[in-house]
Amino acid sequence: MLRESHILLFSIFIAGLCSIVYELLIATTGSYFLGDSITQFSLTIGVYMAFMGVGSYLSRFVKDDKLLAQFIGFELLLALCGGLSVPLLYLAYALDISVQAMSVTLTAVIGTLIGLEIPLLSRLMEKHYSLKANLSNVLSIDYFGALLATLLFPFIFLPWLGIFKTSLMFGLINLSIALSLLWYFSSQILDKPKYQLRMALILVSVILIGTMASSARLNKAWNGHVFDDPVVHSEQTQYQQIVMTRHKNDVRLYLNGGLQFSSIDEYRYHEVLVHPAMQRRDNIKNVLVLGGGDGLAVREVLKYAGVEHVTLVDLDPAVARLARENHYLKDLNANALNSEKVSVWHGDAMVFLQQIKRKFDLVIVDLPDPKTVSLARLYSLQFYRLIGRALTPNGIFVTQATSPFFAKEAFWSIRNTVAASGMKDVKTFFANVPSFGEWGFVMGCQSNCQKPLKFEHISTRFYHHELDSAMQVLAGDQKVDKEVVSTLDRPNVLYLYLDGWRYWN
After folding, report:
1. 348 marked ligand binding residue
2. Among 187, 344, 371, 435, which one has the highest count of C-beta atoms within 10 angstroms of its own C-beta?
3. How far apart are CA 170 and CA 162, in angstroms?
4. pLDDT confidence of residue 78
5. Which of 366, 369, 468, 499 is the catalytic position?
6. What is the pLDDT of residue 346?
């Protein structure tokens, strides 16, 4: 009897472990494909909790004489649905099926099955403990399993296995409940349902193990279907999915499916990001680059002989490692990150600014668009004030600011937020980057943003002094009347960005 109760307690622990991971997997994958992490996690949590209630209600219809067999059957179904949740979301994205609808459907099904677990396990344990002890054991062990899962998911499984394999791994872990119960309680199950459950166990095991074994080929096929050009590098890190493609001379980098650059026209973007600011001062020695782990902005900075040191801050070490080691990217960035003048710090840009005591002559912000709340904070009033604190009295700061055509209200929100941060002078720049369309940049200066100087010739393909004034000319369809500022408390830039791109996407 003691061993029987231990098997049931083990089942409760595994149930708690897997249940929270399925929730994290679905919300994280949805954020990868759809952006707006707040919406994805809110929807997942809300639907998940609601359908747990549905499952708990439905548990009353499971009869006592079929309790064990049906519980094992539910666990097999949960292992299958939970384990295949991420592969199914990948498939939906590849086939242009609504990822949002698939995400909600999977969450509802998994939530219902998880809602069945605790009531049914509690009933199975009735003969071992009193009601008070039973509820205490079931809930405490379930919650402890959930806590362990929240620690294992971001620090162990996601960086080691990636999100695709993690989903399958937890499906197999979930399968251990059905396996242990079917093995230990075999004598308590009638022959016919026992045979059916064994066949189902074998089938689910084969599906999950087979998908796990084929994960590399499946991901390669997925990449080949989703990306137009042949994939030359693909990896899942703790932070994002990194994919590099190449077709003839066009090398492209994607993070979580979003294009970061095309080698055909990236010079337009990076020259406008760097040179208008660099050309406005003749004594820029220390430069801070936030983001830009690909090294392309650093490449432009290093064209100036007077620059003594460049500090690059990028969250994901894998991007900087790729920029240092991948021959396609090294050729493109002129081996910039291996320069003796460059030091790389891996971590959050806002945390870095809060901790750094040094001052910089120029701060370049080359971060992804503000499409999630974690990115929107890096376009906030508080963030720009931290940048101002890190600048010398004559320092300059420049940020990419998304498209003034596709997301013009977000662009102007960034401009207004920079102005509200205390910068003495603010300028906006516009450039056509064919891979992205019309693109915007915002410059903030501690003193006046004077006209470009003519102190040394810098090799550029797009930017030049005469173009500087033209890039500041505003088209009629780029104007907005609102003066919206984005803060940590109210990340307005996030909502404006999503609203702006929603139509075009």
Report:
1. yes
2. 371
3. 12
4. 94
5. 366
6. 95
Query: What is the CATH topology of the domain spanning 2-218?
Result: Growth Hormone; Chain: A; (1.20.1250)
- In contact, 390 and 353? CB cutoff 8 Å: yes
**φ/ψ (deg, to 5) at 289:** -115, 120
Kindly state the tokens that stand for 250: 């066009």
Q: Where are the domains positioned within the chain?
A: 2-218, 221-259, 265-504
Q: How far apart are CA 49 and CA 61, in angstroms?
A: 20
Euclidean distance between CA atoms 422 and 381, whole angstroms: 9
**What whole-number distance in Å separates Cα of residue 428 and Cα of residue 402?**
12
CA distance 59 to 113: 10
Report how far residue 218's alpha carbon sits from residue 91's, in angstroms, rounded to the nearest whole number: 10
pLDDT tens per residue, range 242-292: 999 999 999 999 988 888 999 999 999 999 999 999 999 888 999 999 999
Full-model pTM = 0.81
Burial grade of 215 (CB within 10 A; 0-12, 13-18, 19 or more): middle
SS3 at position 242: strand
Exposure string for 316-337, b = 16+ CB within 10 A, e = fewer: bebbbbbbbebebbbebbbebb
314 is in an annotated binding site: yes
Angle between helices 2-34 and 131-152 (to 10 degrees): 40
The answer to whether 349 is annotated as binding is: yes
CATH architecture of the region 265-504: 3-Layer(aba) Sandwich (3.40)
- Helices 2-34, 85-94: axis angle to 10 degrees equals 20
Report the b/e string of 366-381 with b at 16+ CB within 10 A: bbbbbbbbbbbbbbbb
Is residue 366 flagged as an active site residue?
Answer: yes
